[in-house]
Amino acid sequence: MRSFLSVVWCRAAEMRHDCRAIAATEFAVIVPLMLVMFFGTVEFSSGVAVDRKLTIVARTLSDLTSQSPPSSPNSVKSTVDDNYLQNIFTASIAILQPYSPTPVKAQLSEIYVDSNKVAKVQWSKAATIGSGATQATLATSTRTAGDVVSLPTQLAVKQTYLIFSEVSYLYIPIIGYVMAKTGVNLKDVTYTRPRQVACVVYNGVPAAAPNDCPTP
Q1: Is omega for the bond preceding 206 within 30 degrees of 0, making it cis?
Q2: Which of 157, 139, 142, 137 lies closest to 187 in space, CA to CA?
Q3: Per the CB 3.0–4.6 Å rule, which of 83, 103, 157, 165 could disulfide with 62?
Q4: CA 210/CA 80 separation, integer angstroms
């Protein structure tokens, strides 16, 4: 009769050459890694898509405001009101589709660069979008008239106006295990010059003669 040790040795040798269920074992080990990579790729791709749309929103807000037409024939200024700005902010809803526009916060400001190349806010207005809303809701901006703004050097042209748009979006991943569970705050800004006029007037600011834009 074979000894106990010889039996154990034979069984161990048999197990070493037994490849049954090895594929299932490997699959069980690899699946968690594959799932992490899959959901990570999906979440990262969605985040990049939202970030790209946010850039388009910033450009659209600034561009539409800068294209506002002259308030009268031969005028060098245009006039916008709350209704005009609300319609511009509402465009964000269509741009961000199919993603929810609710986390977006946006604001528009007009900046004047004085003779010393100091850029100051003339007026500013913000907007938010409620859950399921079809229109943006105007809100108080974080910037006020007189605030100094840092501009890229190439945009700091003396005695000129700029339309400045700022947008932010809290992107919250669906899964949350690969990216930040609390969300990633995406931001973008855009500067454009008034297209058809020298300045854009909102609520009487900047104030000047009927056909002039002030150049203090």
Answers
A1: yes
A2: 142
A3: 165
A4: 15
Question: What element of type H or E holds 165?
Answer: strand 160-171
Task: Write down the residue that tokens 């526009």 correspond to.
Answer: 101
Amino acid at 145: A
Strand partners, 137: 128
pLDDT of residue 182: 78
Residue 132 confidence (pLDDT): 84
Q: Which of 118, 78, 62, 80 has its CA nearest to residue 208? A: 78
pLDDT at position 176: 62
Answer for the pair 166, 55: CB distance below 8 angstroms, yes or no. Answer: no
Q: Structure pTM? A: 0.80
Residue 169: the pLDDT is 94
Average pLDDT per block of 10 residues along the chain, 216 residues long: 56 57 67 70 82 95 94 88 95 92 94 94 95 91 94 92 96 72 88 94 85 76
Domain ranges for the chain: 22-202
Structure tokens at 134: 């079809």
Terminal CA-CA length for the chain: 110
Distance (Å, rounded) from C-alpha 75 to C-alpha 77? Answer: 6
> Residue 40, Cα to own-chain centre: how many angstroms?
20
Residue 173, CA atoms < 13 Å, CB-side half-sphere: 19
Q: Could you tell me the two tokens for 162?
A: 């700029």
